Amino acid sequence: MATRLDFENSSEVGVFAKITNKYALVSSGGSENFYSAFEAELGPHIPVVHASFCQTKIIGRMCAANSKGLLVPSQTTDMELMVVRNMLPESIKI
Fold first, then answer.
1. Which helix (H) or strand (E) holds 36?
2. Local structure of 23: helix, strand or coil
3. 52 Cβ contact list (under 8 Å, min separation 6)
4. Cβ(24)–Cβ(50) below 8 Å
5. I need a surface site. Which of 17, 25, 28, 61 has the fewest CB within 10 A?
6. Beta strands in the chain (DSSP E)
7. Per-residue confidence at 1, pLDDT binned at 50, 70, 90?
8. Whole-angstrom Cα distance, residue 66 to residue 15?
9. Cα 2 to Cα 37, 38, 41, 71, distances in angstroms
10. What b/e readout covers 22-34, taking b as 16+ CB neighbours within 10 angstroms?
């Protein structure tokens, strides 16, 4: 199924989200339609985490991710890391 989404009038959804086969990260601060589309399709299968890195919304560009780990910038705040760590499966290395 294909769904059209935009984040704050930008169709560059990959800038504001990062998806692996184990989890999905979506940027904080978007519309409820943006989040509900991810949660409706992915929520039953993988955790959908609302996050930010370096106090920005462009999390898709600010991290590298796969099913085993997540690499974030060194400027990521402790609070941002805590939120992500608490929501991701323990098998994911950050």
1. helix 32-42
2. coil
3. 27, 28, 29, 59, 80
4. no
5. 61
6. 17-19, 24-27, 48-51, 64-65, 70-71
7. low
8. 16
9. 11, 12, 10, 28
10. bbbbbbbebeeeb
Residue 10 neighbours by CB distance under 10 Å: 12
Contact 53, 63 (CB under 8 A): yes
**What are the structure tokens assigned to 28, written together?**
């904080």
Of the two residues 31 and 61, the one the predictor is more confident about is 61
Read off the amino acid at residue 18.
K
Collapsing DSSP states into helix, strand and coil, what is residue 46? coil
Give the per-residue pLDDT at 10.
82
Each residue of 6-43: pLDDT tens digit? 788 888 888 999 999 999 999 987 778 888 888 988 99
Q: Which two tokens stand for residue 23?
A: 């989890």
Report the distance separating Cα 44 and Cα 70, nearest Å: 21
